[in-house]
Amino acid sequence: MRNNRAMTPRTAFPPPPPGTAPRHRVAVLVRPRLLSLELGIVHQLLGRAKAGGDPEGALLYEVLTCAAEPGELPTDGDFTLTVRHGPEALAEADTVLVLSSPEDYTLSRPELTPPLARALSHLRPGTRIASICTGAFVLAAAGLLDGRRATTHWRHAETFARLFPGVALDRDVLYTDDGADEGAVLTSAGCAAGIDLCLHLIRGDHGMAVANDVARRTVVPPHREGGQCQFIREPVRQPASPGTAAAREWALRRLGEPITLAALAARESMSVRHFTRRFRAEVGMAPMAWLTEQRLRFARELLEESDLSVDRVAERSGLGTAANLRQHFHAALGLAPGAYRTTFRGRG
Q1: Which of 75, 164, 228, 345 has the greatest number of beta carbons closer than 10 A?
Q2: Cross-strand partners of 95
Q3: Residue from 137, 139, 140, 134 nearest 154 by CA
Q4: Dihedrals φ, ψ of 63, to 5°?
């Protein structure tokens, strides 16, 4: 290991190309037996986000992989990963992403290993920190989740709750974002929820146009709210059994029109009661709550990408009036539509 450290550069992140703005620096902290899919998710999504959602635009993030002790690390596959960067990358990063490892949920005591504790001591105050899957165990053991809302993989939620009673564990959601103050901390559920977390980070940093472009090029859903259930406690339905996908597609094409629960149920030839039960099983939330969420998402896109007035945005998105739009924005985002537009127009 001593030789590996000697080869590690003192400055982990390279300088930006001449004449370009500095990129947001992301350090991905990996550990032995890492899930290669998780690492690929971060590099594929954050590493390919481009300014303005333009395929020819400048890259927005500089993503580096690092370990507490650089060198060869075993993975979940039949190959190893050579990690060149050590914990110095954490000291230079704007965002740190901690990936999962099987050692997390086999803990008998809520303590970090000495190498991991030394690595996390490099974190600068105010650094944004996030985890994928059981990486939340590391954040909790480091005291970074004390008194905060967090999530992890549903299979290991009982162990997490036992080890870290001071964390407000939400067992069902896809991801959490405790960004109320400087140094936001985010957590996500299983590794596929890491996709949602990365898109959420991109969307918050650079707007929906950039996040949607990344999602399109990666062929993943562009937006799933963090509050959506991570685990549906019903068997996967057979293709021949009735579902609600057609009703959802129909509604998404008509967000600006009046849509009732009865109309949605009629699209699938179901009773309202049966449709609501089926919808919850498939989506994890009530139909009208989902509809409001989609309208709010569309309103955000219109505010970012058009010059429509707030009244017209409310009308086009199906939220009715500007007052209603403001109410939903304050409830979901904590700011007014005009302030939201100014934020992203200013960044543009």
Answers
A1: 164
A2: 26, 128
A3: 134
A4: -110, 125
- What's the pTM? 0.76
pLDDT tens digits for range 38-65: 999 999 999 999 988 787 888 999 999 9
Specify whether domain 2-218 bears CATH 3.40.50.880.
yes
The answer to whether 185 and 129 have CB atoms below 8 angstroms apart is yes
Q: The tokens of 179 are what? A: 């960004």
Percent of the chain whose predicted confidence (pLDDT) is above 70: 87
pLDDT digits (tens, 9 = 90+) for 153-166: 988 999 999 999 99
Q: Would you kindly state where each structural domain of the chain is located, as residue ranges?
A: 2-218, 235-348
Helix axis angle, 337-347 relative to 287-305, nearest 10°? Answer: 50
Q: Which two tokens stand for residue 264?
A: 């949605």
Structural contact between residues 30 and 66, judged by C-beta atoms closer than 8 angstroms: yes
Q: Are 261 and 279 in contact (CB under 8 A)?
A: no
What b/e sequence results for 282-321 when a residue is b if at least 16 CB atoms lie within 10 Å of its CB, and e otherwise? bbbbebeebbbbbbbbbbbbbbbbeebebeebbbbbbbee
Q: How far is CA 27 from the centre of its chain?
A: 16
Q: How confident is the model at residue 332 (pLDDT cuts 50, 70, 90)?
A: confident
Inter-residue contact 198 to 37 (CB < 8 Å): no
